[in-house]
Amino acid sequence: ATPTALLVGTGRGAQLGILIKGPEVLESTRAVDTVVLDKTGTVTEGRMTLVQVVTADGQDEAQVLRLAGALEHASEHPIAQAVARAAAERVGDLPTPEDFANVEGLGVQGVVDGHAVLVGRPRLLAEWSQHLPIELERALEAAQAAGRTAVAVGWDGQARAILVVADTVKPTSAQAIAELRALGLTPVLLTGDNEAVARSVAAEVGIEEVIAEVLPADKVDVVKRLQAEGRSVAMVGDGVNDAAALAQADLGLAMGTGTDAAIEAADLTLVRGDLRVAADAIRLSRRTLRTIK
Ligand code: ADP
Ligand code: MG
Questions:
Q1: In the record, which residues are listed under signal peptide (predicted)?
Q2: Which of 55, 235, 241, 243 is the S-S candidate for 216 at Cβ 3.0 to 4.6 Å?
């Protein structure tokens, strides 16, 4: 709905699939030397699939999928959608959770079939004194070493399983990052996900600087910190959790495939969600500025 509220800054921008909020935006691109990129949904497709379920000794896989799937069905997170979809396929109809709550950047919690269930980062489970048994700890490390995101499932005081999901890097991301580098910009990968997963994605697309395990509310502080170091920061993101960082950045770029919150907070929208257009946008505004001068 929001793109209609945006001004199309230049005809050429519109042709390239870039919506520009106002002419003053072009000016902000002049000094930009750093591009902070959100991982999920920006560098990667953000469409995950469940690839593995590892249960703790004595746990039933169907039960794990039923409880975790029911809870995740109530969340819009890409991980949640992957879990809910796979659970519905394998165990059929899922119950409706009670007392559902989204714990931003950590996971979800709620009551399913009378059990108090948690799905999310091991840190979320640890807050409830649910620590991973050794077999799950190993499965988690193996998944992360392979560049995959793994979340833990626990209920009634005990961690019960690890769910491994896989996301894929967009086919255009590596080229986009090479183009941003060619423009003299330093790319930085920013994510709430685990360090090992972040490193693996970064290596795949040619990024060296990685800032991982950042809670949604802290993404804006990362941008502020880089600015305090004297860097002029462009931020590219898609999620509700990227909105504050997009607004704080010297130049905010939202994926048109992302949330309304991100699009509203950004200066520019990349309509098709193709990261290569971020390089086009910076090239276009530099050229436009040169013509104005
Ligand atoms: P990103 O910064 O990559 O977009 P988020 O900040 O949305 O990631 O989430 C960070 C981490 O929190 C995820 O990698 C996952 O481990 C956990 N998490 C968040 N929401 C959920 C959920 N609904 N189900 C399971 N895990 C979740
Ligand atoms: Mg995201």
A1: none
A2: 241
Specify the residue with its C-alpha closest to ligand 1, atom 26: 120
Identified catalytic residue from 38, 238, 267, 274: 38
- Site to probe by mutation for ligand 1, drawn from 37, 40, 149 as the one with most ligand atoms within 8 Å of Cβ, is 40
* Residues 148, 65 share a domain: yes
58 burial class (0-12, 13-18, 19+ CB within 10 angstroms)?
Answer: exposed
Ligand that comes closest to the CA of residue 100? 1
Residue-range definition of the domain harbouring residue 61: 49-166
d(CA 20, CA 15): 12
Provide the CA 194 distance to its chain's centre, in angstroms: 11
Quote the CA–CA distance of 233 and 278 in Å, as a whole number.
13
> Measured from the CB, is residue 80 less than 6 Å from ligand 1?
yes
Q: What is the pLDDT of residues 60-80, one digit of tens each?
A: 999 999 999 999 999 988 899
pTM of the model: 0.80
Gap from CA of 22 to ligand 1 centroid (Å): 33
Query: For position 131, which CATH number holds?
Result: 3.40.1110.10
User: Residue of the nearest CA to atom 7 in ligand 1?
Assistant: 105
38 is known as an active-site residue:
yes
Model ipTM value: 0.92
Q: What's the CA gap between 20 and 252, in Å, rounded? A: 10
